[in-house]
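From the shared-data thread, chain only:
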Amino acid sequence: MLNMPLILAVLWVPLQAQAPEKTPVDADGAAKAPARAPLLTEGTIITDVQGVMYRDSNSPLWRFRVDPSSDERRGRLREFVLLPCRLLEEMEMKADSAQPGEAIFNLSGEVLNYGRENWLLPQHVEWITTHAERNEPDEVPDDPSSEVRSGDPSGQPEASTSPSESGEDPWDEDEATNRDQGDSIADIVASLQQSVGPLRRSIDTGETTASVSGPREGQLLVSRRGRLGRGPTGAWVWVQDSDVNGLSDPSLILLPSRKTAELEAYGGYGWLGQPMLISGEVFTYRGRHFLRPTAWKIVRERPNLIR
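Structure, as tokens:
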């Protein structure tokens, strides 16, 4: 005897899979905001993802919102917090120059996890711009030379007057100086500053600090000895021990990642200020130095028992 409930259940499953997904709506019938996409695993590489870069209204951080049309999960909101680096400085300048419009980029980079956020370390960026509209005439004359000049209503071309006939000296220094005043270096720099605008505040206090000597961006630290500490603003920093090769090396702010979360946990257990070995990659942003830790080890100092 056939089991009718089982047959109905088997037939109902394909029908459910073929049913189109409905757009979620609220009580008033308006479409709800898209749900947040699940976090990506640390180490994930995203390539050529188009989105909008904008400033977080609740914190001095830059965010990157992925365009829903380029995301594989349609209807899901996916955002990343951009990590400080030299590439982010260039993106800030482009975003400022695009005001009041949106700063649209094609972005590739590595995803890091910290807290309940996905953090993105930019590695390749393309600025998406729109071509400016040109004012083109509706009608193009067949013979441009037959156009009536605005200065002569009779239609005859205006007679040219040579500088010698007009009595003017073409090599007049005062006239040349007045003509070149608009092309001076100071005017060009002022025009560029006005078009680009001042850089906005970002990471930490947001102020650009004076550049100090230290590791350059992209430099790798391997088993470097130092100590974990807290900066003036509460950020976790890595203070390098002075040695013959690094007497003036500045402290490094730790970038958010899973390794940083592990260091924070050990710092809370009493290892704050204890000697450690750390490896990672250095990044620079507005005169500051940042470190993305990739490995670390606690140094256990033992007294020498041999006399």
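Residues 7-21, 176-182, 195-206 have pLDDT under 50 and may be disordered.
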